[in-house]
Design brief:
heterodimer, A: about 260 residues, alpha/beta, Rossmann fold, 6-stranded mixed beta sheet, 4-stranded antiparallel beta sheet, 11 helices, about 35% helix, B: about 290 residues, MetI-like fold, two-stranded antiparallel sheet, about 80% helix, about 0% strand, globular, binds adenosine-5'-triphosphate, binds magnesium ion
Chain lengths: ~260, ~290
């Protein structure tokens, strides 16, 4: 795995700091995220992983009192520039949440939601995207006959896959996943991990996880956060086998805290 | 052992509470049933005697001449209720949406109790304000006496606002934030999020609020009597006077006797049935729409 072919940064994070009021949740974080790779973010609770993820699609904007410094360069442009098209940014940088949150609408309406929001409402177009996204998350065979059923009637795993399909339907470049498996059982988790593996052919995935085995299994790169700092970032093999920082070593070997 | 004893005693008091709640619930329901039976018992015979058709479709209400046509009042009640909804529902929903989704928390924390206070103002006050300001305004702007369908609709529309707003606010607030986040994260605007996710998710609560508002409008009496003109004719325009079913009872009960009195009970029966039908339809509409989505 050692020397990758040519590297392509899709996101360059430079000196990113995020504050909630007086409290600094992220401190001068620098990361280059490689395109079409899986990047895992690990670290103990409350160390700023979600905050980091939510900075990348500017979801922190919704939080009253949240303030950001530094740069996130995506598509060659700093997303914090005032003229950024937020709606377009969020289309290109999709997000899957910790708890599956399908809308209480039909499966069809859930998957096509992003399309309708972005004005792409031609019937044939929507159906084609619906088909492709449900296929991509391996739900098409199960659900093709009940597209009008309420999404809340699905199992937790199906709901999470649906949420992923909902993101894929708008053809993002990057998919952010915040502990996407934490509400799922181990078999469902394994299947979602398989899925991530398939998806990285086309998408850049950044996943936050509490589960170090998961990070080791699925990711190409790993970043270790501690108290708002990015302690170490590198290829996953290296982070888990020969961490450079003492604190990383303590964490990945389970000696933490 | 003491533990077992405690559990037994707990079960005993549980039983007691259950039984007393049952008794309370049962007596509340039976009072309602008794009232209903009484109204029907008083009102139905005369309807049978003069014919259901004459009651429901007759256009002349001359109790002294044994002419008991309720159609003008039925039309009147439906008209002013519809008018109230046309005014109250959009305003109420818009206010609720604004207060929950587009204003900062302090504003809505302050305004919601104020709005709920409006629900506590006695209807005679609304009627009086209507008579003093709204009726003259309509008279000057649009002509006629001002005592009209329009005046009654506007007053009722305002009166049902607190109900609609406060129930809508509660049901919109009950929509989990995770839906909003999911929508925004897909690149939706706030308004799209409200329209396409929040409102559908809150639908059953919103419909409940509208039904309650509708119930209040069709049952309201005093304020309507004061601004509606009360002529027992089918109104020819929004500016014509109108008499509702409730007004019909309230206006004549003081001196009605014999068959006249029974005809007023019959008015009550009709009102009762109309309210049941409207509730049923509203519920049906809510459910059907939900399945379509
Ligand atoms: N909306 C907020 N307002 C104030 N402080 C916040 C807010 N959200 C998060 N924080 C704080 O910022 C810090 C980082 O939170 P964050 O959610 O990013 O951590 P995390 O690494 O994702 O934790 P977890 O593993 O528990 O999900 C925490 O100390 C948290 O208390
Ligand atoms: Mg988190």
């Amino acid at each position: 795995m050692a020397e990758m072919t040519q590297r392509e940064n899709i996101i360059e994070v430079k000196f990113l700091s995020v504050f909630y009021g007086q409290f600094q949740a992220l401190k001068n974080v620098n990361i280059n995220v490689q395109a079409r790779k899986i990047t895992a973010l690990i670290g103990p609770s409350g160390c700023g992983k979600s905050t980091f993820l939510r900075a990348l699609n500017r979801m922190n904007d919704l939080i009253e009192g949240a303030r950001t410094e530094g740069q996130v360069v995506f598509d060659g442009k700093d997303i914090f520039e005032p003229d950024t098209d937020l709606l377009e940014l969020r289309r290109k940088v999709g997000m899957v949440f910790q708890r599956p949150n399908p809308f209480p609408l039909s499966i069809f309406d859930n998957v096509t939601y992003g399309l309708r929001v972005h004005g792409q409402t031609a019937r044939g177009f929507m159906e084609e995207r619906l088909f492709r996204s449900l296929q991509a998350v391996n739900l098409w065979d199960e659900l093709q006959d009940k597209l009008q059923a309420n999404a809340l009637s699905l199992t937790g795993e199906q709901q999470q896959r649906l949420c992923l399909a909902r993101v894929l339907a708008v053809e993002p470049d990057v998919v952010l996943m915040d502990e996407p498996c934490s509400a799922l059982d181990p078999t469902a988790t394994a299947r979602i991990e398989d899925l991530m593996y398939q998806l990285k052919e086309k998408y850049t995935i950044i996943i936050v996880t509490h589960n170090m085995q998961q990070a080791a299994r699925v990711s190409d790169y790993t970043g270790y956060f501690l108290l708002g700092e990015l302690v170490e970032f590198g290829e996953t093999d290296q982070i888990f086998t020969s961490p450079r920082d003492r604190r990383t070593e303590d964490y990945v070997t389970g000696r933490f805290g | 052992m003491a533990g077992g004893n405690m559990i037994a005693r707990h079960e005993g008091s549980d039983r007691l509470i259950k039984i007393s709640l049952l008794v309370v619930a049962f007596s509340a329901v039976s009072v309602l049933v008794i009232i209903t039976i009484f109204i029907f018992e008083q009102g139905l015979p005369i309807m049978m005697k003069y014919g259901l058709k004459n009651f429901l479709l007759g256009q002349n209400w001359f109790p002294s001449e044994k002419s008991f046509g309720l159609l003008p009042m039925i039309v009147g009640s439906l008209l002013v209720t519809l008018g109230a909804l046309v005014i109250g529902v959009p305003l109420g929903l818009a206010s609720a949406i604004f207060l929950t989704e587009f204003s900062n928390r302090r504003v809505s924390r302050f305004l919601k109790p104020v709005i709920e206070l409006l629900a506590g103002i006695p209807s005679v006050v609304y009627g009086f304000l209507g008579l003093m300001f709204l009726v003259p305004f309509i008279r000057e702007k649009f002509g006629g006496s001002g005592l009209s369908v329009l005046a009654a609709s506007i007053i009722l529309g305002i009166m049902i606002l607190p109900t609609i707003i406060s129930i809508s606010i509660d049901s919109i607030r009950a929509v989990p934030d995770s839906y909003r986040e999911g929508s925004i994260a897909l690149g939706a605007t706030r308004w799209q999020t409200v329209r396409m996710v929040v409102l559908p998710a809150a639908r059953s609560g919103l419909v409940a609020g509208i039904i309650l508002g509708m119930g209040r409008a069709i049952g309201e009496t005093m304020a309507v009597i004061m601004v509606a003109g009360n002529a027992a004719d089918i109104p020819g325009s929004l500016l014509a006077p109108v008499r509702t079913l409730t007004s019909n009872i309230a206006l004549e009960m003081a001196y009605a006797s014999g068959e006249h009195r029974e005809a007023l009970f019959a008015t009550g029966v009709v009102l009762f049935v109309i309210i049941m039908i409207l509730n049923f339809l509203a519920n049906l509409a809510a459910r059907k729409q939900y399945r379509k989505k």
